[in-house]
């Protein structure tokens, strides 16, 4: 019996996560092409079989293809997986639209919103590519640990159940569990918001405020994610799952997180630009904090931790003032609003 044919996947974005996912797919015998905007870096990857800048410890599988021309990477691909930073998502999407096969399915592992509008990435995909099945790959997954073959679990939420299942199966590997779901909005919100909240716990840890502060921030951060998510129409269980709580815990506590490391640096008094320069990779919270504030504003929600992170990133308050303001808030009920009221009605 012949094995079912597998679609070619074009992975767009050759940073840490794009390279890690492309290597995972290629190891799973999925025909995979990795595109990056830096042709020299791609040529080096092909010859050294390593991504020396972003994932120097990973041996890239010989089956993985590299393509410096975007149109050649995308043409004929049954699935496109976009893994560029959120600020570049819309422009990459616009560029590929005329290159796509009519039946191409669109997926992304980017965490964030459209910069400047607060629009979700699935909203952009639905608007610009109506009718193309769409899916997001998200959850607690440091690229370095995935490439080291350490056990990880992610989740794939899709507009089309069959596509979500197919993509999850292509990604699923002995030490990489890929679950599925159909709440794209909730899955995207969790992945984006945890980056902002990781800065808060990083700041607290950088200021050596202790373990109680860290746990308090994670839990109250979860409360902010739930309140914004439910207001937007996300399902609470998505936010309590891998896409929300799972990634929140990972990013708030794991020093591999660039967003947490940004917070640690700010908490130690290192200026924002210097901290971002030292990290040397994308730190999504720097743009996502503004978009979370925008969404909270649209829905009339007060999200004090997210707002404090935004204010610290803009230099409007110092980390010390931010902590003082959070601790000085009035006493209140832990959950003043019944999050599940609609369901019980
Ligand atoms: N790393 C991780 O563990 C995980 C990351 N993610 C998410 O994946 C996304 C990508 O992050 P990650 O790979 O880690 O980031 P990195 O900083 O490791 O790499 C970013 C990559 O994006 C490329 N890039 C930047 N701007 C553009 C652009 N305008 N057009 C095309 N390519 C561009 C960079 O190219 P160049 O080198 O030329 O600048 C680089 O290859 C983020 O949204 C992140 O939150 C999600 C889960 C895990
Ligand atoms: O999203 C991630 C892990 O799930 C990576 O987090 P950072 O971008 O903070 O490194």
From TrEMBL:
Q: Which NCBIfam families match?
A: PRK00094.1-2, PRK00094.1-4
Stored PANTHER family: GLYCEROL-3-PHOSPHATE DEHYDROGENASE (PTHR11728), GLYCEROL-3-PHOSPHATE DEHYDROGENASE [NAD(+)] 2, CHLOROPLASTIC (PTHR11728:SF1)
Where in or outside the cell it occurs: the entry states: Cytoplasm
Q: What is this protein called?
A: Glycerol-3-phosphate dehydrogenase [NAD(P)+]
**GO-annotated cellular components:** cytosol
Keyword Zinc-finger, does the record have it? Answer: no
Q: Name one GO molecular function term.
A: glycerol-3-phosphate dehydrogenase (NADP+) activity
Domain Glycerol-3-phosphate dehydrogenase NAD-dependent C-terminal, by residue range, is 183-323
**Which pathway is it part of?**
Membrane lipid metabolism; glycerophospholipid metabolism
What does UniProt list as catalytic? 194
Q: Which Pfam families match?
A: NAD_Gly3P_dh_C, NAD_Gly3P_dh_N
Q: Which residues form the Glycerol-3-phosphate dehydrogenase NAD-dependent N-terminal domain?
A: 9-162
Report the superkingdom from the record.
Answer: Bacteria
Q: Where NADPH is bound, by residue?
A: 16-17, 37, 54, 111, 143, 258, 282, 284
Organism annotation: Luteibacter pinisoli
Q: Which reaction does it catalyse?
A: sn-glycerol 3-phosphate + NADP(+) = dihydroxyacetone phosphate + NADPH + H(+); sn-glycerol 3-phosphate + NAD(+) = dihydroxyacetone phosphate + NADH + H(+)
Query: What is the E.C. number?
Result: 1.1.1.94
Q: Which family does it belong to?
A: Belongs to the NAD-dependent glycerol-3-phosphate dehydrogenase family.
State whether keyword Oxidoreductase applies: yes
Binding-site positions, NAD(+): 13-18, 143, 258
Query: Which of this chain's residues are annotated to bind sn-glycerol 3-phosphate?
Result: 111, 139, 141, 194, 247, 257-259
Protein's job: Catalyzes the reduction of the glycolytic intermediate dihydroxyacetone phosphate (DHAP) to sn-glycerol 3-phosphate (G3P), the key precursor for phospholipid synthesis.
Upper lineage ranks? Bacteria, Pseudomonadati, Pseudomonadota, Gammaproteobacteria, Lysobacterales
The positions annotated for binding substrate are 111, 258-259
